[in-house]
User: What shape does this take?
Amino acid sequence: MRVLLLEDDVDLARELVGALRRSGFAVDHVATLADADEAIALAPYDCLVLDRSLPDGDALSVVEDLRRRGTETGILVLTARDTVVDRVAGFHAGADDYLVKPFAFAELEVRIRAVARRGTRERTPVLRSGDVELDVPRHEVTRGGVLLSLGPKEFAVLEMLLDARGDVLSRTALFEGCWDERTDPMSNVVDAVVAQLRRRLGAPDPIETVRGVGYRIRT
Assistant: This one.
């Protein structure tokens, strides 16, 4: 799951980026509205986490612009502006959720996942294919009823494959959905994680390689 964090507080941003990445999110960070506009134009995001009071304006302008253009990406406003008027303005602008600082990280993580599921189409909380089952809210994967231990990237790739319901996902699509700007797009990280995921899932292999295109889950 790929997240864009717009936050101009350097220390808070560093803390949030680290915590979100440890929780398995791919996170890009920007500190201005201009940089946020550029990032949104260049990459697909499952959720935008936006502070409101930025050096170059109020992030609600970004929210309003995206909604005017019909963009359905999940948006969570994360701000110290805590009055009822502020919260109502956030929802009127088109935000899906509004979380006031200070906050507990566990709550932020849950809210990001919930907002992302409201995105371009409603996602099923539990994804299945054959005897493979992925519970998104619980962040658990089982096969044949046996709980598996997956790394954050393995979980993210499997979630995308299951959510595609048998459609082929290119390596580029998987990379953009599961990795952030720190990772070299020319590396073989996608193939390496898919190989490790196959080992975790065991036989018979539920992932099919479509030569020259990418991967899909066997249905």
Q: What stands out?
A: The chain is about 40% helix and 25% strand.
